[in-house]
Amino acid sequence: MQYTVQDAARLLKVSEETIYRFIREENFPAVQFNDRYHINRQRLIEWAQERHFPLVVEAGERLPALDDALTAGDVLHGIEGETKRDVLRAITERMPLPESVDRQFLFDMIWSREQMSSTGFGKGIAIPHARRPIMLDSERPLMTAAFLGKPVDFNAVDGQPVSAIFMLVTSTIRIHLHLLARLGNALNDSEFLRLIQAQSDKETMLTRLRELEYSAKNPASSS
Predict the structure, then answer these.
(1) For residue 221, what pLDDT is reported?
(2) CATH of the domain at 172
(3) CA gap 196, 198 in Å, rounded
(4) Which residues are catalytic?
């Protein structure tokens, strides 16, 4: 999906003039064609996540909440591996996927994207995903949080080794981008980050995600 400058300004909560400055100075994912800029939506979300920009999550019916995705997924502890490839393979082997999912194919998609550029978010976190959204035979999207036995270098933007990884599996592009944006916002929450650093259990992390979801839907009550 392609965005306009106006769409990008709304998503990032900045002015259109700021978007044009980003295009000039910030390696912004925009391509000029016929005197207009075209911006790839997924690359824009990735660009914003790398710089810890809060995103305006677009409303829509039947879009799952992040806590629903984690409920369907899992929180894994003690993932072992010496390299990015090792830990990504270990996670894909342990994720609670439907039996119909080809785990080797999933790993190949994830690893292919990782070789293009690091998915290190910073703060010791990575969000590996395919070059195109992962669309597998699963009606219910899931997110797995995996904590590593020891940190692994992901060539993250801040230089910190990664000790926590979030992996999404979705059935549509729209849901994938929606959850990716939700996750980016959650990772800017100091309390959720504290839980990640403490390698908390699934129920504790779900509780905080539900609080964030409620705050997003009811901004007046959280002020």
Answers:
(1) 57
(2) 3.40.930.10
(3) 5
(4) 129
